[in-house]
């Protein structure tokens, strides 16, 4: 099996910490959808239930079972081990970093192989869980997947053997997210997507838009999509900057961002840190230039000055200069957007996912 992996013969069990609306969960859905078409046997165990992606995954005819009915970690682990011994999968795969210890221990107890997950920059994930649990979660899985080369390099430099970690790039549905034929508006429309929390630094985007207006871009509009604890603070800042009610629209959590991308001229991401954000791939697939902080896995997605632009997160002057340059040049925006779309089609489309997964499972089972 290890030398000649056929996806149709594999039994794969995924373990998720949540099925809420997030980037890791969306990538899980893409993986399940691709694997389902091969005929592989799939099962999903989850610590939570009744969340947004659960129904979508059940619609793929993938069985979803709740294993988080106890607050006790040892009891949860025992439940997972019982399920794995019954299922006897070839692979037990984590979808979140904080599931790595569960899959490593359960796989050893049940006599199967495990695949851990790194979804961010390694440093923030380890720090969040504390030095002991964080490093155990990083090092214990006998094989681990990461979605950015920066995280892979950091994992190796942190002591993970290079033959025990592999890169599986995030993908995006290029049929759902595709360039629009025309944008029936005048002026400049900017979109920013992300949780309204401290690390996303939407305050920088608001200051950027205020400066654009002061610099002559009178008909600029900003749409901020997302919910979070800082919404009131950000609305107050927008009011103080004179951006409400006509310039900024806080639209909350959005089910279908494709609608907003079709009306946008660019996407701006000003985070202090990121993993490998789906929003960047979605916007690029829609043929939009993305101006983003040079953090986490973002440089893996954007080729600076070709398929988008990268700026240091704290350099608000550089952010303004780049946005102002392409805001006044529709031809340049179109050129950058076309390169972005081509890059996504070549490296991040769903069509290549099955082949990449086959390589991953071959390496994990060897």
Task: Describe the secondary-structure layout.
Elements: E1 11-16, H1 23-38, E2 41-46, H2 52-58, E3 63-66, H3 73-87, E4 91-94, H4 100-110, E5 113-118, H5 123-129, H6 131-139, E6 144-146, H7 149-157, E7 165-167, E8 188-193, H8 202-214, E9 220-225, H9 231-240, E10 248-252, H10 258-262, E11 266-269, H11 278-285, E12 290-293, H12 298-301, E13 309-311, H13 316-327, H14 330-347, H15 353-365
Parallel strand pairs: 1-2, 1-4, 2-3, 4-5, 5-6, 6-7, 8-9, 8-11, 9-10, 11-12, 12-13
Helix pairs in contact: 3-4, 5-6, 8-13
Provide the descriptors you would attach to this structure in a database record.
Rossmann fold; 366 residues; single chain; elongated; seven-stranded parallel sheet; alpha/beta
CATH architecture of the largest domain: 3-Layer(aba) Sandwich
Shape: elongated
CATH superfamily of the largest domain: Glycogen Phosphorylase B
Order of helices and strands: EHEHEHEHEHHEHEEHEHEHEHEHEHHH
Q: Radius of gyration in whole Å, from Cα?
A: 21 Å
Mean pLDDT value: 95
- Contiguous runs where pLDDT drops below 50 for at least 5 residues: none
Helix content estimate: 40-55%
CATH fold-level name of the largest domain: Rossmann fold
- Domain count: 2
Q: Characterize the biggest β-sheet.
A: 7 strands, parallel
Number of strands: 13
């Amino acid at each position: 099996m290890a030398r000649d992996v056929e996806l149709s013969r594999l039994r794969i069990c995924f373990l998720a910490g949540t099925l809420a609306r997030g980037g890791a969960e969306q990538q899980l859905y893409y993986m399940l959808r691709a694997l389902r078409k091969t005929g592989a046997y799939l099962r999903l165990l989850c610590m939570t239930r009744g969340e947004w992606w659960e129904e979508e995954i059940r619609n793929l005819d993938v069985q979803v079972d709740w294993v988080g009915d106890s607050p006790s970690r040892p009891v949860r682990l025992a439940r997972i081990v019982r399920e794995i011994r019954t299922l006897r999968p070839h692979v037990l795969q984590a979808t979140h970093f904080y599931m790595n210890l569960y899959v490593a221990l359960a796989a050893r107890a049940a006599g199967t192989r495990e695949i851990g997950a790194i979804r961010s920059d390694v440093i923030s994930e380890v720090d969040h869980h504390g030095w002991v649990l964080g490093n155990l979660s990083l090092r214990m899985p006998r094989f681990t997947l990461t979605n950015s080369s920066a995280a892979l390099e950091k994992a190796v430099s942190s002591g993970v053997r290079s033959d025990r970690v592999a890169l599986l790039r995030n993908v995006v549905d290029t049929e759902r997210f595709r360039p629009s034929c025309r944008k029936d508006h005048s002026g400049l429309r900017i979109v920013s997507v992300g949780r309204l929390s401290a690390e996303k630094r939407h305050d920088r985007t608001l200051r950027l838009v205020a400066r654009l207006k002061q610099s002559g871009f009178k008909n600029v509009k900003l749409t901020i999509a997302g919910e979070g604890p800082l919404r009131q603070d950000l609305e107050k800042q927008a009011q103080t900057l004179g951006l409400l009610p006509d310039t900024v629209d806080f639209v909350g959590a959005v089910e279908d961002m494709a609608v907003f991308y079709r009306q946008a001229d660019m996407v701006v991401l000003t985070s202090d840190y990121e993993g490998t954000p789906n929003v960047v791939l979605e916007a690029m697939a829609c043929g939009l230039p993305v101006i983003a902080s040079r953090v986490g896995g973002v440089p893996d997605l954007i080729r600076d000055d070709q398929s988008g632009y990268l700026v240091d997160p704290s350099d608000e002057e550089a952010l303004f200069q780049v946005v102002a340059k392409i805001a006044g040049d529709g031809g340049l925006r179109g050129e950058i957007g076309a390169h972005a779309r081509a890059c996504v089609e070549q490296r991040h489309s769903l069509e290549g996912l099955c082949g990449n997964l086959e390589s991953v499972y071959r390496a994990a089972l060897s």
